[in-house]
Amino acid sequence: MDEPKYVFVIVTVVYVFVFIFGVLGNVLVIYVVCTLRDMLTPTNIFLVNLSVADLLVLLVCMPSSLVEFHAREVWLLGAAMCKMTPLLEHTVAHTSILTILAISFERYYAICNPFEVLYACTKRRAMKIISCIWIFSIAAALPLFFMTETRRTKHLSGEMVIICRTPVRGELRVGFILVKMFMLFLLPLVILVVLYAIICRRLRRHVLKTTLRTHGSRRQVIYMLITIIVLFFICLFPIKIMTLWSIFSSSQDKKAMGLEGYLIVLSFTRVMFYMNSAGNPVLYNIVSTKFRNACRRAMGCGKQPLQKTGSISRQYTHVTGSRRPSRTDFQETNRQDYKRSQERIAMASVIHVSNHLNSKDIVEC
């Protein structure tokens, strides 16, 4: 059977598009957060970790996948790369879901248990959590390094070629794949649904007790995080189904699919997996106003935040026109400014106690 050429053309174009936008977008996220000090928050540190993981997938796994695809499943990159590619793909997938869980728990504490947020959500603690996430993710994916192998087999053309496969034979290997899928895909999904249901319920309950700006900031952050979660599970769901099908389907089922059907399904699952790595920066720009403004500032295209001027010039421009304020005027204005500042501090304390959370506890991503 002739190989469908249109599949290779479409897949190549999509791969190149996803690669370019994914690399540029994730580099931009890292640059913006690391350049602007006000963006270096615990939540954004976790998002940078997501971008680093996505960059590894795009720069290492995606090119090797495209080479293998154009080589008609013949492996040309050596035994070491054959073992490293699935290890890195699964490590990054684990890192992504665990990072999303960490962000979600951080938001849960910030909104539902605000008195614990300073303890639970510091930059140093975020870095420690990220280190633990990477160690655990590598450990969970390490068995795949030993399961994956290169072997010689007869190609469709009749020639003997080298392929790269991760055979799942025996109860132990099947059990490992199923447990890993449950612990690092299905269970996190359930936890995230429960967490955000609680968070959304809390936000609706306290909507009348908070300022419009504070509530809008909270809602925007939660909306962005929910969108990231939905993108993650939608993009990884097809490859999980493909994995289960390859484990439990018979050889007759695979032959019945045909070469064209197999290539289309395989290409779709891989493209969806890589789109998750390229899609997060797009979501940040679409959903988050603060991130869009930060991008403009980092690129020198937006206005830098202006320092607030005192009320002296505003007050006397409005009241006295061009009259130069006297020393008595300055003293009176200073007393008024001090009184207003004390009133603002007192009001902020009242709001913090009544709402259990002030606007600074919400990290606008």
Automatic annotation (TrEMBL):
Residues 307-338 are annotated as: Disordered. Pfam families: 7tm_1. Signal peptide: none annotated. InterPro entries: GPCR_Rhodpsn, GPCR_Rhodpsn_7TM. It is found in: Membrane. GO terms for molecular function: G protein-coupled receptor activity. Keywords: G-protein coupled receptor, Membrane, Receptor, Transducer, Transmembrane, Transmembrane helix. It is a multi-pass membrane protein. Residues 25-284 form the G-protein coupled receptors family 1 profile domain. The chain crosses the membrane at residues 6-33, 45-67, 87-105, 126-146, 177-200, 221-241, 261-287. Residues 307-320 have a biased composition (Polar residues). One of its GO terms (cellular component) is plasma membrane. Residues 326-338 have a biased composition (Basic and acidic residues). Belongs to the G-protein coupled receptor 1 family. This is G-protein coupled receptors family 1 profile domain-containing protein. It comes from Capitella teleta. The lineage of its organism: Eukaryota, Metazoa, Spiralia, Lophotrochozoa, Annelida.
